[in-house]
């Protein structure tokens, strides 16, 4: 059993803390909202304000930080997590008697933990990362409607580590998890979380764009079409599709059909498909500058059309 503090007790923080508690750890929640503290205490959990956490005990094994990082005018707003990091450094981390690990879970741009979080902790605690305390970045993959269930049934745990000592400590905390646990650098774990979210956003936006185009037809079962695509398109059923660094898509179908559908939507209905259009434009640019290996341009494997498959049988 490890003694854990959850810094920031919103949806992610509460799912994290409740999940760790369910799996045998001693958890203390910390938040700046007194109402949140009162509700957690009413439900039988240990919870306190930041200024009280340092006085509660000085032997935490880890501090999991789940503080919000909202967007402000199109830019990420880090002031909340910076403020929480300062408080942690000046209080509980400074007074902590033994080795512990600080583990941000908030979504952060690659490099933020190394360039912002660690220096802030060191400056305010007087301690040295890698010597006096460890640091890991542990991205969360929780859905808001089922956050606690997702936490206790993870598909994957990613641990970005400052060093192996830090990573091993977080391994110990997650020893109950029956899923792959992958170790990366701090920046790689931060990047993975962003790409994870961006891919989900782009996929939703793409199918919304297709729904708008196909919706111009009456009596078309668009949901049925999408369900079939989920089974037929390799980009859906093969999780490794498109991940290799092989340059632009190529072949007899993909370049032809992306341009054809884009032109058809414009001429038939007068509509623009910005996601598809950008895909075509970026692929053209990449094709022009694609690097060469052994004198040949690198590209994704050619994807044959159905008719080509029939003709070659």
Name its key features.
disordered C terminus; Rossmann fold; alpha/beta; UDP_ManNAc/GlcNAc_DH; two-stranded antiparallel ribbon; 2 domains; 6-PGluconate_DH-like_C_sf; 313 residues; UDP-glucose/GDP-mannose dehydrogenase dimerisation domain-containing protein
What does this protein look like?
With 313 residues, this protein is of the alpha/beta class. It has 2 domains: 3-186, NAD(P)-binding Rossmann-like Domain (Rossmann fold, 3-Layer(aba) Sandwich); 194-293. It has 13 helices and 12 strands. The chain has helices spanning 11-22, 34-42, 50-56, 79-95, 112-125, 147-152, 164-173, 186-214, 222-232, 234-237, 254-269, 274-289, 306-311, and strands spanning 3-7, 26-30, 46-48, 62-65, 71-72, 75-76, 100-104, 133-137, 157-161, 181-184, 292-293, 296-297. A hairpin with a 2-residue loop joins strand 5 (71-72) and strand 6. The N and C termini lie far apart (62 Å). It comes from Candidatus Staskawiczbacteria bacterium RIFOXYD1_FULL_32_13.
